[in-house]
TrEMBL record:
<protein>
    <submittedName>
        <fullName>Endoglucanase</fullName>
    </submittedName>
</protein>
<dbReference type="InterPro" id="IPR032260">
    <property type="entry name" value="DUF5060"/>
</dbReference>
<dbReference type="InterPro" id="IPR013783">
    <property type="entry name" value="Ig-like_fold"/>
</dbReference>
<dbReference type="Pfam" id="PF13204">
    <property type="entry name" value="Apiosidase"/>
</dbReference>
<dbReference type="Pfam" id="PF16586">
    <property type="entry name" value="DUF5060"/>
</dbReference>
<dbReference type="InterPro" id="IPR025277">
    <property type="entry name" value="Apiosidase-like_cat_dom"/>
</dbReference>
<feature type="domain" description="DUF5060">
    <location>
        <begin position="2"/>
        <end position="62"/>
    </location>
</feature>
<dbReference type="InterPro" id="IPR017853">
    <property type="entry name" value="GH"/>
</dbReference>
<feature type="domain" description="Apiosidase-like catalytic">
    <location>
        <begin position="98"/>
        <end position="415"/>
    </location>
</feature>
Length: 773
């Protein structure tokens, strides 16, 4: 960085307002117009961070053309390359990646955004010694960014008088926002520089939403010009304002002018640092009127308990799915830890993981106590949320848990992760349908909060969420095909959600699987996983030569050139094929029900994999002693099915799975347990073989063809699993040994192209990882 100071013999009554000074730099091929900042008295400074080392010329241009000291011709400066170890300075400033999905440094290195929130961090509510302590703590925990405001949250403090707008140099402004105090910024400088020295990117907020009304638009522009001049040479992100809402069509709109201010920042910044505004919760999340002016979205799904997670999912999905606009999506503020007597670490963990698996490029942790710098040596904020001090809140559990979660992600090519709801069953609802809309999505958290004093949990938020009949407390998945799968399994209380089924394993790819415990970061080895291989063929039938191999237990059928035709409820089973474990499939018409029968003992005892045409769903039914179970693993078909499709089922031991495949797509149920119901009451739990067959309903004709039975392939057993347990910080946590633990991880279901691990070791939320080896 090149830095210089210019002095003027001429004095000005209000230098901040009376004079604009620019320094024009060039290397002969590129040029930069860098604003200078008033240092106090008759001095102005400039900071310039060129893209590379070398010789640059510069000239000074002042709005007062008669001031010879501040209007000077070309001078030469040699800028040396940075040779130190600081990764922020070595890799260069930030930009949006070519994909539009994440940030990277100038050298192309991806930048992972794990932010902490210190809105009052430039004031001396947080002393300089405390600032250094907090910085060291966040660096040790793996944070890469800090959200920090030049003028803090005006909801809690009144600008510019309250302590949050003062530091060792005094107030940032005078009472009428006429005179800026450079000494305030001299002390702010060392805090911004200290963050950069700690390899933490400053995310600089200009002011909160009320400030624009207090300052006026022209003063706000001058103020932002000053911020750019002082801090633009650092690797930073810009946030024009906090809780901005500039929707001209909404009577709730606040102060006019935020869109104009964002446009001014973009035009003035010579480095084009990534720029955004901090949004309000939906439906007031249309922050500015010109989408093209911001480089990324900085969401605030709110602090409304678990409803905020729902709002987060919808916001992320709908923005991620836009076909005309791609931007990095950052969850900037959600469910601050302990705020309002709830929002504890389990909510923060879920918010983090559901953000990262639903398209986010980063996430910001926060709690009000450190965010607003509560201490005992200053007057209380006008609004207070706790009697705890910042140093007590610094070690809230989620602050560490999100650090180790981010470290886990950064051990993989996280920037290539894509939401994959089709890889998991059961899974939480998503809103990833491609759409051309830019903004104004149908999400309303604020409105649903106002419906009644105690609205039901499921009513939050209103709008698009209500179109999905599903629970967000279900697993979510993201990954990289053939390389990595990450599944978050939320906590649903005791006894927990159990094991999800991982779908669509790629043929020939071998994964190593493990559970990751998210409070300590302990890995539990689950061994190798690969898609099941087809076993030997036992029987095939196209039904063209007649049905001599079949017995009718119910109804009748007719062999035709098209296949086996039924016109009434029909159950027929193969005469000489008895199997315990088998993979069975048949092609059939999709306008009528289809059933594949396995382990048939008699008409009152069998298992059937079923496709229901009327409800467009698949699942497994177990018939025992003449009584049918419900539809186990019921899975709606998420696409319009072709006229004919192939129904497949695999039953192995205690487990079964069913899929429906047409020419284009596949729908697969989760792996379900059938052992409690599969056998007649007089048969011991040991599995008994049964006959294999077909079931047709009585309300539609059906035509079966291409029937096939295969034995299940034998899966290779795992080699020795790692039993020793260490947490993310290297602390030994014991070993998986003892009764019920010696074989843990070896019991797994792999059926068709799906995998179900053992139930997690104990009830809470877990992360399931599959990494290709």
């Amino acid at each position: 960085m090149f830095e210089a100071t210019f002095e003027s013999a001429k004095s000005y009554e209000n230098p901040f307002r009376d004079v604009d000074l620019d320094v024009h730099f060039t290397d002969g091929t590129q040029s930069w117009r860098v604003p200078a900042f008033w240092r106090g008295a008759n001095r102005w400074g400039v900071r310039f961070a060129p893209p590379s080392a070398g010789r640059y010329s510069y000239r000074i241009q002042c709005s007062d053309l008669k001031n010879g000291d501040l209007n000077q011709s070309d001078q030469i400066v040699e800028v040396d390359a940075y040779e130190g170890p600081n990764r922020l300075l070595k890799r260069g400033p930030f930009r949006v990646s070519a994909s539009g999905r994440f940030f990277e440094h100038r050298d192309g290195t991806p930048f992972y955004w794990l932010g902490d929130t210190w809105y009052t961090g430039l004031s001396d509510r947080l002393s300089w010694e405390a600032f250094q302590t907090l910085t060291a703590d966040r660096k040790a925990k793996g944070y890469s960014a800090v959200h920090i405001a030049v003028m803090t949250v005006s909801n809690e403090e009144d600008a510019p008088f309250d302590p949050g707008f003062c530091n060792e140099g005094g107030r940032a402004w005078d009472a009428g926002f006429e005179r800026l105090n450079p000494a305030f910024f001299d002390y702010a400088d060392r805090r911004i520089a200290h963050l950069v020295e700690a390899e933490i990117a400053p995310v600089i907020f200009g002011a909160w939403r009320q400030a624009l009304a207090q300052m006026g638009l022209e003063t706000a522009k001058k103020f932002w010009r000053y911020i750019i001049a002082r801090y633009g040479a650092y690797p930073v992100f810009w946030v024009a304002g906090g809780e901005v809402y500039d929707n001209v069509n909404d009577p709730r709109r606040g102060v006019v002018g935020w869109t104009d201010l964002v446009r001014y920042i973009r035009e003035t910044d010579p480095y084009h640092h990534p720029l955004a505004v901090h949004e309000l919760p939906p439906s007031m999340d249309t922050a500015i009127t010109d989408e093209s002016l911001s480089d990324f979205d900085l969401f605030q799904p709110s602090h409304s308990g678990w409803a905020s997670i729902r709002a987060e999912i919808v916001q992320l999905n709908m923005h991620y799915a836009r076909t005309h606009v791609k931007k990095p999506l950052i969850v900037g503020e959600v469910g601050w830890e302990t705020l309002g007597g709830h929002h504890y670490e389990d909510l923060q963990r879920m918010a983090f993981w559901l953000a990262m698996l639903n398209g986010a490029a980063g996430f910001a942790y926060g709690n009000a106590i450190t965010g607003l710098a509560y201490d005992v040596d200053k007057p209380f904020h006008r609004i207070r949320f706790s009697f705890l001090r910042w140093d007590e809140a610094m070690n809230f559990p989620a602050s560490n848990q999100l650090g180790i979660a981010a470290a886990l992600l950064q051990g993989y090519p996280w920037q290539r992760l894509e939401p994959r709801p089709d890889w998991i069953s059961p899974g939480g609802p998503t809103f990833l349908d491609p759409q051309s809309e830019v903004g104004g999505f149908d999400i309303d958290l604020i409105g649903s909060l106002g419906k009644r004093p105690e609205a039901l949990d499921r009513e939050f938020p209103s709008g698009a969420w209500q179109t999905r009949d599903a629970d967000f407390r279900l697993p979510y998945a993201a990954g990289i095909p053939g390389t990595l799968r990450i599944i978050y399994i939320p906590s649903t209380g005791f006894p927990g959600v159990g094991s999800p089924t991982v779908l669509k394993l790629e043929p020939g790819i071998v994964y190593r699987a493990y559970y990751w415990e998210p409070t300590l970061g302990v890995k539990v080895d689950l061994g190798k996983v690969e898609a099941g291989k087809a076993g030997e063929v036992v029987h095939t039938d196209t039904f063209e030569a007649g049905s001599v191999n079949w017995d009718h237990a119910l109804g009748r059928s007719e062999c035709t050139a098209r296949g086996l035709l039924t016109r009434e409820k029909t159950l027929l089973v193969l005469r000489n094929v008895w199997e315990t474990d088998a993979l069975v499939s048949v092609e059939a018409e999709t306008n009528a029900d289809v059933g594949l029968v396995l382990r048939y003992r008699d008409s009152d005892n069998y298992t059937v994999a079923t496709y229901y045409a009327r409800t467009q769903s698949i699942g497994v039914v177990v018939r025992r002693d003449g009584t049918d179970s419900g539809l186990l693993g019921r899975t709606p078909i998420p696409f319009k099915v072709d006229a004919r499709a192939r129904l497949c089922v695999e039953v192995k031991g205690n487990s079964a799975i069913v899929s429906l495949v047409d020419e284009r797509e596949i729908a697969t149920s989760p792996i379900v347990d059938i052992a409690p119901l599969h056998a007649p009451s007089d048969v011991a739990p040991a599995f008994k073989p049964g006959r294999v067959g077909l079931l047709a309903s009585d309300d539609q004709s059906q035509c079966f063809t291409k029937f096939e039975v295969r034995r299940c392939a034998v899966r290779d057993s795992d080699e020795t699993l790692d039993r020793e347990l260490y947490d993310a910080r290297g602390t030994y946590r014991g070993a998986l040994r003892g009764k019920n633990w010696d074989a843990y991880g070896r019991n797994k279901d792999i059926l068709l192209d799906a995998y179900r691990p053992e139930r997690p070791p104990f009830p809470q939320d877990w992360v399931l990882v599959l990494e290709a080896i």
